[in-house]
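ingest -> validate -> predict -> emit
validate: passed (alphabet ok, no gaps, 791 aa)
predict: started
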Amino acid sequence: MNHHSPSRPPAAAFRTPSGPLEAHRGGSGIAGALRPSIAGRVFLVGAIPIVLIAVVGFLSVVLLDRADLARAGALEAANIYRQVVSGMSAQDAYVSGTAGARERQASAFSASVKGAAAGLRNLEAKSGDAARTTAIVQTRSTLSRYRNLMEELTVATGEGDRLVAEMDARLQTLLKLTDEARERQTRSNRDLVETLSARDRTLKFTRDVVDSALSLRAALADGMMVSASGRSPSETSVSASFEMARIRHAAASLGEAIASARNAGEGDRVLPDLGSGGVRALQGALERVDRQLKIDTTAQRALQGEIAGLLAFTINAHETEQATQNIAVDTLKLGRRSMEVIEARSAGAIAVIDEEGRRMGDKIAALPISPLIQSEMIDALDEWRAGLRAVRKGLEDQSRLLVDMSDTAGIMLLQVSSLNNELSRNADAIGTAVRRILFVGGGMAFLMACGAGLLVARSITRPLRSLEKGMIDRASRIDAGLMPEAERRDELGSMARATNNFLIERDMREGALRRAKEESDETLERLRKTQAELIQAEKLASLGQLVAGVAHEINTPLGVALTTATAIAGDVRRFEAETAGGRVTREAFAGFVSRMAEGARLTTSNVERAASLVHAFKQVAADQASGERRAFELGEFARDLFTSLGPLRKRAGHELHVVCEPGLVLDTYPGALAQVLTNLLSNAYAHAFAPGRNGTIRVEAARSEGGRVRIVFADDGRGIAPADQPKVFDPFFTTGRGSGSTGLGLHIVFNLVTATLGGTIALSSQPGRGTTFRLDLPLNAPRHDSGPLAE
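emit:
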């Protein structure tokens, strides 16, 4: 585009040997020399209302001083009213609060009363009216009486709290004695149950012996009858054989019953001798069985009677234990109800609680327990009832004091409110007079300023419009010539001459600027290509380092899982062999199950750890490789990123703490953000700490104002020298050139933050006290038509 026109004279035509535009400055005449400047006219417009306002202000200040005194008194009265109300609130909180919080409420009451007293003294010192001074003195007297009543209430409440604490101690003693009585009865019941179980076991074995002996006796009697019958020898032989078999079976059963009783330690009976057969032998055996049967039957009846007595005693003991437990429950209920009644300050309901305590004492006196414990329980209950009656009297005294304090506080509030109203009316009257003066004087100043302003504005706006029109014409047409207003001797003439100078210089610089722009465009394009190549190379290098670290990190949990699985397989083969051989014991089986569970836990935890590393790496690698924009939760993104960067931290040996505000969602370029955080972490590991020293790195992210998020990346390392801080974001600047650093890491971070993510980055560092990078990023990053700069 060519801005030169053949019809326009060259720039040199507008210059003279003495400087540009000198030919247009002469010949202005007497009118130009006498025209006042714009500054003088503006000063004239401002001076007129200022003088009038000064006069009005002087009069207003005189009245405002008096209004301030009256308003200060009204404010002081309002403050006294608030202090009194605050004291009443503290009194109510003191009465309804717990014993532990009463001291704090009493202090709050004292502070409020002292503040009100100080305010009344200030009002009395500033008051010039006798009636007002008398009212203030009366209010101070009322306040003093209110404070004295509060002191009496404090003493009465303290005594009541002491009595309540003693009552609680008596109830705790009663509960402890009740628990002791119940534990004794429980032990006695346990002994009774054991004795009853032993007697029942003895009765069972005795009954089995008696039943077996009865069966043997019946068999012996039948055998005698067969032997004594007059049957043929063949019939007698068959019947005798049957009966002998029956006798031997019954004798065997009796022997088993006797052996069971002997093994259980229940008696030392022996099987009676049955003889060698025949009627006489059977008769002797029957007699021996009858004698033993009488003994066992007698013993059985004695055991049954003893068991019946033990059962009755056990039932009575259980009822005693239940009654003791009911006493404990009644004690807890009585304590809770008494505390509710005391907190409700109901003196009339205390008599009902006292009567319940008397009835519970009758129950305790009727318990069949240790007389010593019973006496201590009754004494503790009597002391508790005595304390309850004392608390009732204290509550009546406190109620009387509260009524007096309420009446006194009401009177005091009316007195303070009357003072406040009187002072407020005085201040309002003075304020009304001041407002009238300000309104009238301000109106006059406004009218005069408007008139003078219109005249001056008219004398300024007309030449300004002409100058504006000329400048617009010359901006749109390059052949319009110079500004004719350059002949004026005021500020508008200076503006016109400056415009003419600009027009002359414009054409001279247009050509140079056009050539410089073309060269800059070519250089910028080359820089952009170089920058994209450097960023891509840095991303690939970081991704390669990440791949190597994650692969090394995954080998550890996979190795542990493989070792555990191999050990499990060996245990399974050994257990299978033991199972096939029938040699598995309960302990071996339990040990096998325990080892399998531990092996499964180790395998699962290590495989899950490897899967977590792979997931984090996949997410980070995908973000860095794609460069696409998406919405993501910053906390989850940070966990995946720093998990995948775990190998870097382990090699460096430094602590990394990441704190992110929950639910923080960004719509931006995750690949660019991952590259920024990776480069900052790598830079800290490489340069922040001296060799052999372990440090701590903190990454914190939280929502900030204006729909932005602030990410703070800080370390406690050796810091950056002040001379180097302005150059840390410059390309190829590094202090570790000898260790292989390129000086591009922080330069890439700066470009990604400002160009791709649309944010800002700031550095603060002190030598020996660490370095902090603050990134302020928008929640919604600006969109790039051709993708982010990093791509």
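The longest strand covers residues 696-704.
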